[in-house]
Design goal:
Blueprint (H helix, E strand, L loop, with lengths): L9 E2 L13 E2 H4 L3 H27 L5 H18 L5 H6 L4 H25 L6 H5 L1 H31 L6 H15 L6 H21 L2 H18 L15
Antiparallel strand pairs: 1-2
Helix pairs in contact: 2-8, 3-7, 5-10, 7-8, 7-10, 8-9, 9-10
Length: 249
C-alpha cells in the first residue's frame, strides 16, 4: 500500500541539496534516520567505489572496451531514475542553459584551456596536438562519439543520480561538491595514472559546483564535453586510454 503524505510531511526537493529533477519528498527522505544514512552510504560505496573497481577488472582482465562498458551503466542509472517516483526526467531535462551560465562556462573554459595548453606546450611539447595531427580519423571519431558514449552516462551517474540520491547525506553544499568530485576522480583509476585521477577531480569540482548552482543537466553536459574535447585535442588523451581497442575504431 502506498503511503500518503500530508502537506506538512512533504517538502520541496528543490529546497535541499538534490538534483534538478527531484520532486517533493517526505520529511524522512530529506532528513534520513541514522539507519537510512548508513544504508545510503553503503549503497554509495558499492556504486561509486565498487563499480569502478569492477569496471577496471572488466576492461583490463577481460578486455572489455570501455565505450562498450559505459552504456549499460548509463541505462541502469536512467532506469532507476525513471521508476523513482520522487524524480522526474522530464523536469530534469527541461531545465536549460541561460545566457549567464553559458557565458560563464565559455569564459571558464577559455581561461582553463589556455592554461592547460600552455602547460602541455612547456612540459610535454611532443604531445601537443599529436592525436589530431597523427591520427585525424581517430581524433574525429572521438570528438563525435565522446559526448554520447562517455559524457552522457557520466553526467547522469555523477551529477543527476548522485545529487538526487545522496544529497540528503550532506549538510552543506561544499561537502556535497567535494564528495561528488572525489567520487568522480576515483572513477578514473580505471586509466591507471595520477594525471587522469587528479585532473578529473579538479574538473569534477567545477562540474559539481556548476550542477549545484544550476540544478540542470545541460550546463554540466556542455561543460564536460568541452573539457573532454580539449583533453583529446591538446595531447592529453593518452592518459585517458585503457589500451583496450574499441572495435568501432
Amino acid at each position: 500500500m502506498t503511503k500518503v503524505f500530508s502537506s506538512k510531511d512533504v517538502v520541496s526537493g528543490s529546497a535541499d541539496l538534490c538534483a534538478g529533477g527531484t520532486l517533493a519528498q517526505s520529511f524522512d527522505v530529506i532528513h534520513p534516520s541514522e539507519r537510512r544514512r548508513l544504508q545510503l552510504w553503503a549503497e554509495l560505496g558499492v556504486l561509486f567505489v565498487g563499480l569502478p573497481l569492477l569496471m577496471r577488472i572488466a576492461v583490463f582482465d577481460y578486455r572489455v572496451p570501455l565505450f562498450y562498458a559505459l552504456p549499460p551503466v548509463f541505462i541502469g542509472f536512467v532506469a532507476f531514475l525513471y521508476v523513482d517516483r520522487t524524480f522526474s526526467l522530464k523536469k530534469e531535462l527541461s531545465r536549460g542553459i541561460g545566457w549567464p551560465t553559458a557565458l560563464s562556462i565559455l569564459g571558464t573554459f577559455a581561461i582553463g584551456s589556455a592554461l592547460v595548453g600552455s602547460l602541455v606546450a612547456v612540459l610535454m611539447p611532443e604531445r601537443l596536438f599529436a592525436l589530431a595531427a597523427e591520427r585525424p580519423g581517430l581524433w574525429l571519431k572521438i570528438m563525435t562519439l565522446y559526448p554520447f558514449t562517455s559524457v552522457l552516462p557520466q553526467e547522469f551517474a555523477y551529477r543527476v543520480f548522485f545529487f538526487h540520491r545522496y544529497g540528503p547525506l550532506f549538510h552543506s553544499r561544499w561537502a556535497l561538491i567535494f564528495a561528488n568530485a572525489l567520487a568522480f576522480g576515483f572513477a578514473h583509476i580505471l586509466f591507471r595514472n595520477w594525471i587522469a585521477v587528479g585532473g578529473t577531480f579538479v574538473v569534477g569540482l567545477l562540474l559539481a559546483w556548476r550542477y549545484e548552482r544550476t540544478r540542470s543537466f545541460w550546463p554540466v553536459y556542455m561543460e564536460h564535453c568541452l573539457w573532454g574535447w580539449l583533453v583529446f585535442t591538446i595531447g592529453l588523451g593518452v592518459y585517458f586510454f585503457t589500451g583496450v581497442k574499441n572495435p568501432a575504431w
